[in-house]
Design a protein that fits this description.
This protein has one domain (about 35-255). The chain contains nine helices and no strands. It has helices at about 1-30, 35-45, 50-80, 85-120, 125-130, 135-175, 180-190, 190-220, 225-255. About 40% of the residues are buried.
């Protein structure tokens, strides 16, 4: 047991150290060389723009489910569906919006990024880039990190809006809550701090997903099978890290009053 634990810790800290080295190189090249604007814009389209439909659908139905569950719970406890707008908006803006958006992007765009870079790695295209004098971190990693970091907070806002709208539909049409009551709950209690809480989380999640997926892609080994393993590993590790970071980030933000 101790031997296995030791091997796991060595593996974990080795991976963590290598990923940290990649982040350091990314910041170095970001400051020292021109940004690959075309690559960055292409990745923003792939990661952000093309993910809008699935994010909107996810946010809509999550909001509808939240409103339905909250309404039924309040009816059972208080015999009246109270504070549905408050519960739906706070749950989405502070927690579910950032987390679920990050999950969806990790599964959709994160897997694609890992597979793309991993395929380039096993087919020696990255070695060819190095031979031609192009740094892989500058050309491949930085545009994708920027694209993740820019896209996910914006997609989180879209998800929040659709979720609140979905909750509005269920509350008004399904539970009989007056539309003014639903909107007043949101405008009265939801503040800028709540929005910033969710956006800070979304930004940290975005950077985490970008780092994990790019790192896994650059360290792919073993041909097509290795690409599959790297892609699966990137998605799983990203989702686990999102949940771990979510807890500690929530505690830190609450400590600072955000």
């Amino acid at each position: 047991m101790f031997k296995k634990t030791g091997k796991f810790l060595i593996f974990f800290f080795t991976q963590f150290g290598q990923a940290t080295e990649m982040i350091k190189d990314a910041f170095f090249w970001f400051r020292k060389s021109p940004l690959e604007v075309n690559q960055t814009l292409q990745q923003i389209v792939k990661i952000g723009v093309e993910s809008v439909p699935v994010i909107l659908m996810t946010g809509l139905f999550v909001g509808m489910v939240l409103a339905l569950q909250a309404g039924n719970t309040m009816q059972n406890i208080l015999s009246e569906p109270l504070y549905i707008g408050l519960l739906v908006s706070f749950s989405l803006v502070r927690e579910l919006g950032p987390v679920l958006t990050a999950f969806v992007i990790a599964g959709r765009a994160g897997a694609a990024v890992t597979a793309e870079i991993g395929t380039m790695k096993v087919t020696e295209q990255i070695d060819a880039l190095s031979t031609l004098g192009t740094n892989a971190i500058r050309y491949l990693v930085i545009p994708r990190l920027i694209a993740f970091t820019v896209s996910i907070p914006i997609l989180t806002i879209f998800s929040d809006i659709m979720g609140i709208f979905g909750g509005f539909i269920v509350s008004v049409e399904g539970l009989g809550v007056p539309s003014s009551t639903y909107t007043n709950d949101i405008t009265t209690y939801l503040g800028v701090d709540d929005l910033m809480h969710g956006l800070i989380k979304a930004t940290v999640f975005a950077f985490t997903i970008g780092v994990i997926c790019c790192y896994k892609g650059l360290n792919t080994r073993g041909g097509a099978e290795g690409v599959g393993k790297a892609t699966t590993g990137a998605v799983v590790v990203s989702m686990v890290m999102i949940l771990v970071i979510d807890y500690f980030l929530t505690a830190i933000l609450h400590a600072f009053g955000v």
